[in-house]
């Protein structure tokens, strides 16, 4: 009897332990369900308030329309006035090329022009003299004092003088063009900054013999930087020119926020313009989501306050609800 009572007592104890455990599981599952529901609701609200309003990428970099500076004439470099990272203004003298040959050519052209102008003066005198002679003989031919042959000769001399004058004037025009070209060539020995910016990739050295079209250095217009943001193609459905963009640079550790505007889209994806473009016509093809560069104009005042350089990483977030 005592053994049976003991067995019954132990069974009741097990039952009393199992029931709380079931309740705990039920509560736990309820809490998990509530958490999942809350998370789903939160995700929906986030998408509604944020995700559907913005598209963003950290695949973005600063860029600029860099000016390549090259010599337009041949010669030896006499002076280099700039170094990499130096700020310059448009019109500043960057490089001087030996102008000895250019000056000699200019003086020769000026001398040729002076001779041509002297020939014009002489030709004008000949025209005036032959015209007077022709008119006198024309007046005498009526009275028979001058023969027809003499009149013909006078006419030919007058025509020849006018032709010589025309030729002399043409020679003056040619000589003047040579003077103009020599002046241009002389001016090209002074290489100036084409824009405001910062010197980069300076390759020219003192005493170097330079040739036309060979790059000497670059000028980066840091005050006119823009951003190329590479968005996934699936992100661009609602993106259009004129929308506002918030940008952050790794240079300032997200402490500085730039405000830009979408200017437009590149003509193709990065893969399309790669040195070895993808060839999908072989049949061996896996679809890959492509990225399309979006050009974003930066605020020049913000750039002046917090300068950037070409190639820096940026985070870009486009406000899809903004209007152009």
What does this structure look like?
- This protein is an alpha+beta fold and 324 residues long.
- Among the domains are: 54-65 and 222-319, Elongation Factor Tu (Ef-tu), domain 3 (Beta Barrel), CATH 2.40.30.170; 99-187.
- Helix content is 43%, strand content 24%.
- The protein has four helices and 14 strands.
- A six-stranded antiparallel barrel has the order 1-10-13-12-11-14.
- Helix 2 packs antiparallel against helix 3.
- The radius of gyration is 43 Å and the shape is elongated.
- The N and C termini lie far apart (92 Å).
- The mean pLDDT is 86.
Q: How are the elements arranged and paired?
A:
Blueprint (H helix, E strand, L loop, with lengths): L1 H50 L2 E10 L3 E4 L4 E6 L6 E2 L4 E5 L2 H42 L6 H40 L2 E3 L4 E4 L8 E2 L4 E6 L5 E7 L11 E6 L7 E9 L25 E8 L1 H6 L7 E7 L5
Antiparallel strand pairs: 1-10, 1-14, 2-9, 3-5, 3-8, 4-7, 5-6, 7-9, 10-13, 11-12, 11-14, 12-13
Helix pairs in contact: 2-3
Core attributes:
324 residues; alpha+beta; 43% helix; 4 helices; Elongation Factor Tu (Ef-tu), domain 3; 6-stranded antiparallel beta barrel; 4-stranded antiparallel sheet; 14 strands
Spatial order of the strands forming the largest sheet: 1-10-13-12-11-14
Strand content: 15-25%
Secondary-structure arrangement, i.e. CATH architecture of the domain at 54-65 and 222-319 = Beta Barrel
The overall pLDDT, averaged over residues, is 86
Portion in helices: 40-55%
Low-confidence stretches: none
Q: Can you write the helix and strand succession as a string?
A: HEEEEEHHEEEEEEEEHE
The number of helices is 4
Tell me the total number of β-strands: 14
Q: How would you name the CATH homologous superfamily of the domain at 54-65 and 222-319?
A: Efflux pump adaptor protein, beta barrel domain
Structural class determined from secondary elements: alpha+beta
The Cα radius of gyration reads 43 Å
Q: What is the CATH class of the domain at 54-65 and 222-319?
A: Mainly Beta
- What summary fits the major beta sheet? 6 strands, antiparallel, barrel
State the shape: elongated
Q: Give me the CATH fold name of the domain at 54-65 and 222-319.
A: Elongation Factor Tu (Ef-tu), domain 3
The span between the termini is: 92 Å
